[in-house]
Amino acid sequence: MGRIIIKTPEQIDGIRKSSRLAAQTLDHAGQFVAVGVSTEFIDNKIEEFILANNAIPATKGYHGFPKSSCISPNNIICHGIPSKNTILKEGDILNIDVTTILDGYYGDTSRMFTVGNISDEAENLIDTAWDCLDLAIEQVKPGNHFGNIGFVISRLAKGKGYSVVYEFCGHGVGIDFHEEPQVDHTSRRNTGPVMKAGMIFTIEPMINQGKPKADVDETDGWTVRTVDNKLSAQFEHTILVTQTGYEVLTDVHQDYEIT
């Protein structure tokens, strides 16, 4: 494992601003989620909003990724490529994942959206994915082990009959798109590196209705689906370790207090 960057106050301020913009971009995107809308149309609105705010969409061109966001409906776990051929329909659930580069700093967040009336099973899955992120954030404080994030996520999800994707994880972020450490969403208690004030990383649990394994599309090399075509749900925040706890940098709805 490489070095985990301890951010300076100046860097933290820059990453905070980019993180807020990323979250505001999701708010903006949400108004276009509706029956009959293509995921490409939503992605175009996302790109327009990011550029209008003097920032850059980090995903566009990243290792050849063609779009400004990842939009992943239903059985797509992550890295869904927005397309004019993917048309939203009643009952769909989808994750929209946005990373902004503002003044050279990265902010990364994703959220679930729903189209019309969704099934009870889809709603329960989404609620569990949110609860997993919520519980994991409470583990963020100086001196705690990163493994405890994955421990509490896995315990909660499996206790409700779901599985946790283990092939994709959270990551350090801010100066670069992906930094150390790797933040696993299923792990053993009291394992991994120790958190220190000034570290910034994402927590982004992907919770599956069925099997935990992921299947990467061989044609586009990006789209990650559940192996059994069952639903998947995910939420993601960018989080700063403070001197005494955490600050959720992508929280624009005041869901969390700074600890």
Number of strands: 15
Class by alpha and beta content: alpha+beta
Average pLDDT score: 98
* CATH class annotation: Alpha Beta
What characterizes the major β-sheet? 4 strands, antiparallel
What sort of overall outline do the alpha carbons produce when their principal axes are compared? globular
Total helical segments: 4
Low-confidence parts: none
Can you tell me the CATH architecture? Answer: Alpha-Beta Complex
The CATH topology turns out to be: Creatine Amidinohydrolase
Set out the fold topology.
Elements: H1 9-30, H2 39-52, E1 56-57, E2 70-73, E3 76-78, E4 93-102, E5 105-114, H3 120-137, H4 147-159, E6 163-164, E7 170-172, E8 179-183, E9 200-203, E10 206-208, E11 214-216, E12 224-226, E13 232-234, E14 237-241, E15 246-248
Antiparallel strand pairs: 1-4, 2-4, 3-12, 4-5, 6-10, 7-8, 9-14, 10-13, 11-12, 14-15
Helix pairs in contact: 1-2, 3-4
